[in-house]
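TEACHING EXERCISE
Course module: macromolecular assemblies
Task: Read the component lines below, then compare them to the predicted structure of the full complex.
Student: A.B.
Group: 4
Components provided:
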Amino acid sequence: MQPSAERPYWNPYVAGFVLGLVLLGSFLVMGFGLGSSSVPTRLAIGVAHAIAPAATEANAYFAQYVGPGKKLLEDWLVFEVLGVFLGGLVGAYSAGRLKSEVIRGEGVPKGRRIALAIAGGVLMGFAARLARGCTSGQALTGGAVLSLGSWIFMMCVFAGGYLLAPFLRKEWR
Amino acid sequence: MNVLPLYPHDAFGFPTGLLLGTLIGFAFGFVLERAGFGNAKNLAAQFYLTDTRVLKVMFSAIATACAGLALLSGLGVLDLSLVTVPETFLGPHVVGGLLLGAGFMISAYCPGTGVVAMASGKWDGFWSIVGVMAGSLLFGFLYGPLEGFYKSGAMGSVTISQATGIPFPVLAAGVVAMAIGAFLGAEKLEAIFAPKMGKAVPAANSSLRNRQFATLGTLAALGLVAWVAVPRVRPVAAAKPFARIDPLDLAKEVVSDPQQLWIVDLRDPKAVAPAERIPGTATLPEGTKPAAFAATLPPTRTLVVYAQGDVAALPAGFEAFPGEVLALAGGFDAWKREVLATPQPPADPTPALVAEFRTRSALNGYFTGAAAAPPPKLVVKAVAPSAAPKKGGGC
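Instructor-supplied answer key:
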């Protein structure tokens, strides 16, 4: 049974420290860190490949993922993100936060919120492929190993967010 | 002795890696959920400075992992050079960062937190992931015109430490100091901006916070101490010691006593034609790394390794072979030069030179199938033919 009362979040400093240990663990065990965005990418290419195999394999970018001898889903990050999903599920359930809902600001219609979630997602999907990673693979992982490009990327993520924030203020009142 | 990271040291195979990946991912997802990142409100709050838990969690994690890497590498248990560093592409990282930040603000999730939100039943999280999928395809469709920019500003796997020359542990300590400064600043900003947006200022737990600061500070300080105090164990020094063997000596051994040798080719097996190997070289099972193979050999013989050129250091894993290891001096290039190339008769035949020529000719004949050239006539006196090695041998 899911607990009826919602458990509080962890203190962010504690959560961050524990997250750092998980990341460090990945470095020590695997020799590389965490990632996320490439798995939606792989799934999307899988869908495209199922619909139009020839056209997908003819695309120079998709051809890195699909084609003769390539196993689209036999990839470390696919399993890692599967773990993220399960960990999120168990975490939400055990904290009483597993609930079908749409998170939105006060008075914001569901449709509008979903539309923005999709639009932002499209932008992120595009940007993550351009930058070869997202907040997980670049900012967090690359940040911890002091990759030059990852730190530039991280600063730009915050800059991009703050530049746009004033225009979306009413979404989060 | 450095044994970490485990996977690049061949501690386990790919399927085990996938299983461990699922476990690591589980921990990642669980912590993200407990951090509050399965809920868009907590993520959007970062950009309005009403609750900066995104900064606190992310920067704490980066500082912890970075200081941990510095300490373990300083202690000599971790080979930092085997930890993957994402490659730098200047333009794509700037533009990709700005666009991803904008997308993060619009959807109020990033790809990883979107997955956690989806797992928590949040439909906005689900749809943001659908958006990420669509955006990936969009990138693929536009890849033709984008390819030039996508590959521009390539600097390879470069760390800030390599770019600036500042040692990694010093930078790690700097990251910790910067994180602590940023956290204190962020708490001040929360106190200003949360009331403006009509939100409660996030509850501060200063004892927990200070304990975290102390832990990070201690980690960073230990990293610096280890870096200064522990003598740097160079990978070469830490690796198994080995002597070198000259091509001619190896050729004699192969002819006379092949049962006393394990010969392992360090080159990529797929890139080397069978004729381009020293006879008697072990054939590695498909997908096996030479070091992993060497570990399975009994130490009853001498292990001889060779590459195309000289072997500067044994690859990690050879320390698992308990017996003696020799490396072919000059590698296969020297073997070709010394053994496979037809020997030239000495211009000024002395007994010693003629004897050496006979040896070389005999070995060359053995390994190439060419008939040995007649030795040049000696002016002074005949040379005992005993220098020629006996063929065959062994049992």
